[in-house]
UniProtKB/TrEMBL annotation:
Belongs to the TolB family. This is DUF5050 domain-containing protein. It holds the Pfam family PD40. InterPro entries: 6-blade_b-propeller_TolB-like, WD40. It comes from the Bacteria. It comes from Roseivirga seohaensis.
Length: 129
């Protein structure tokens, strides 16, 4: 029983860390080069899990996905310009990996295997894959 609880705790921690993926940015508004952060997260605010962006002060949020199904497991590209995530199809039987620009444009589905769960995308160090 203790092993099951520990495994559950680890899974919840991994899901939380993936859902709250953070990208550091240089602020162009301040000549002293202060840092700001753009945070990508997945939320069911509209019913389906969609991906949102917010700043480190949570002053604003922008939904960058808008499709039926769930989107999550967010991974920023090393240069901070693109996001990889998963989304599901077929009523949750097929989970596929997607990439998009950091603002949600140029969404591309990369995996198409039916009845498979492709999840937890990660970028290569150079961001090309």
């Amino acid at each position: 029983m203790k092993t099951h609880n520990f495994t559950h705790l680890i899974l919840v921690l991994i899901l939380f860390l993936n859902a709250c993926n953070i990208k550091k940015q240089d602020s162009k508004e301040n000549s002293s080069k202060s840092l700001s952060y753009e945070i990508a997260y997945s939320s069911k605010e509209t019913g389906d899990a969609e991906i949102y962006l917010t700043d480190d002060k949570a002053k604003s949020k922008t939904r960058i996905t808008n499709r039926s199904g769930r989107d999550g497991y967010i991974a920023w590209s090393p240069d901070g310009t693109r996001i990889a995530s998963y989304g599901y199809y077929d009523g949750g039987n097929t989970w596929s990996i997607h990439t998009m620009n950091h603002d949600g444009t140029n969404l591309k589905r990369l995996t198409h295997a039916k009845n498979k769960w492709d999840s937890s995308p990660a970028w290569s160090p150079d961001g090309k894959k």
